[in-house]
Amino acid sequence: MQNSEIIWELVDAKRQPFEALSDRVWGMPEIAYTEYRSVGEHIAMLKEQGFRITENVAGIPTAVMGEAGEGGPVIAILGEYDALPGLSQEAGIAEPKPVEAGGHGHGCGHNMLGSAALLAATAVKDWLARTGRPGRVRYFGCPAEEGGAAKAFMVRAGAFDDVDVAISWHPASMTKVDDALSLANTRMDFQFTGRASHAAAAPHLGRSALDAVELMNVGVNYMREHMPSDARIHYAYLDAGGIAPNVVQASAKVRYAIRARDLAGMLELNERVKKIAEGAALMTETTVSISIMSAVSNMLGNTPLEDAMFKNIDRLGPVPFDAADKAYAAKIQATLGPADILNDYRKTGIAPRENTPLCDFVVPQGTRGVPMIGSTDVADVSWKVPTIQARVATHAIGTPGHSWQITAQGKAPAAHKGMVHAAKIMAATAVDVISDETLLARAKKDHQERVTRTPYVCPIPADVKPPIKPRPAAAA
């Protein structure tokens, strides 16, 4: 029996408690740096499975690491469990219906992400114990992937200094080795301060901070024509200055997300946006203070690990969805438009398939579609150690990320099948690295060649700390 078949059996042997863990975390959605209950569930599972546990990793209360094994290479398996604001949704239906109006929801599937990663780590732990091989597996429970850059803070704090390889996954509509593409990203706040005044009786005495924010937004919008086409800039008002139109707004605050294909390009755009903000302050006779909240790098690939992971995906085959899974996915697809479904195929690089609500195939290695790129803090880990990710089908083809439809599908039987499939892929890849010294050496050589060309510089300034939130009373 091959190692991959043994490890798959070890995953199946413990799938049910981890499916239940995923469902529990789905039911307690917590956003960046507030994941106290979710990390508590993961800590309890780590204890139950016999891991050596380190809490408060990098000084972050909602980060945890569990280790098992002795000697040998160190394999990190990365999990997440943060939710998104405003995506509360009842499970198992195909219409928008929040559990709590305005509440949080797992609209990116991180309830599955962390649970499958911990299942994979547990299977590798059991395999090490069964075989007596030297090697260590570490499960990293990572908070705040959604805009909080926790992994970048963890990298900066040295959490991955002695790790040999890192493995992760993400829920998706297609099953494949993840393209090593992500945008470097900075989240930056601009606080404008002016002078309040009566907007009718003494407008000449006022200096509007809201005017400054709006002028800044206009300036950035004009800049869009003169920046790389694959860069992205978004903004959101954090403080529009109040609700009284007859008061000149003395304070206003806007948050910008600035993205580019690489770190150097992002840093250049950061400086241009800062200059526009300073110009807006000059025009309005206000002042502006600028603070970075978080930042992440772009993703580095690793060809040997990508090839190794694909071999496991190819041997395992597609997720074993059944007729009931496909029927529910078809109902979800009915809430989408043709463009949503076509978009999934275009970015994956394969021809659209009719009557295929769920991915019942494996995307061939090397297939490339139209780049449609987001950002992830896994990227910073990839600059520190050789890193590989899978994307595994857990929801209907065409489902937009960060949507109520993702939340709705997060506890479905298809989601359970997909997360267990992901655990098998990650665990088998970890076993390959532990068992094959040549694979590990090639992965490290590939990584070293990439970082030698462009050495890693943490995109978060040294004086910026993780924006840790206090433990809510309900989570105490």
Structural class: alpha/beta
Helical fraction: 40-55%
Report the radius of gyration as a whole number of Å: 23 Å
Dominant shape: globular
The largest sheet, given as strand count, sense and whether it forms a barrel, is: 7 strands, mixed
Termini Cα gap: 47 Å
- Biggest sheet, spatial arrangement of strands: 1-2-4-3-5-11-6
Compute the number of helices.
Answer: 14
Helices and strands, in N-to-C order? HHHEEEHEHEEEHEEHEHHHHEHHH
User: Got a strand count?
Assistant: 11
| Low-confidence regions | none
Descriptive labels:
476 residues, 14 helices, alpha/beta
Provide a descriptive summary of the structure in words:
This protein is α/β, with parallel strands linked by helices. Helices cover 40% and strands 17% of the residues. The protein contains 14 helices and 11 strands. The strands form 2 sheets. The chain has a 7-stranded mixed sheet, with helices on both faces. Strand 3 (74-80), helix 4 and strand 4 (135-142) form a beta-alpha-beta unit. Helix 2 runs antiparallel to helix 4. The model has no long low-confidence stretch (mean pLDDT 96).
Describe the structure concisely:
The protein is of the alpha/beta class. The chain contains 14 helices and eleven strands.
Topology, pairings included?
Layout: H1 3-13, H2 15-26, H3 36-49, E1 52-55, E2 64-70, E3 74-80, H4 110-131, E4 135-142, H5 150-156, E5 165-172, E6 176-177, E7 184-193, H6 209-223, E8 232-239, E9 251-260, H7 263-284, E10 287-296, H8 303-316, H9 323-333, H10 338-348, H11 378-384, E11 387-393, H12 404-409, H13 413-435, H14 437-453
Parallel strand pairs: 3-4, 3-5, 5-11
Antiparallel strand pairs: 1-2, 2-4, 6-11, 7-9, 7-10, 8-9
Helix pairs in contact: 1-4, 1-13, 2-4, 4-13, 6-7, 8-13, 8-14, 13-14
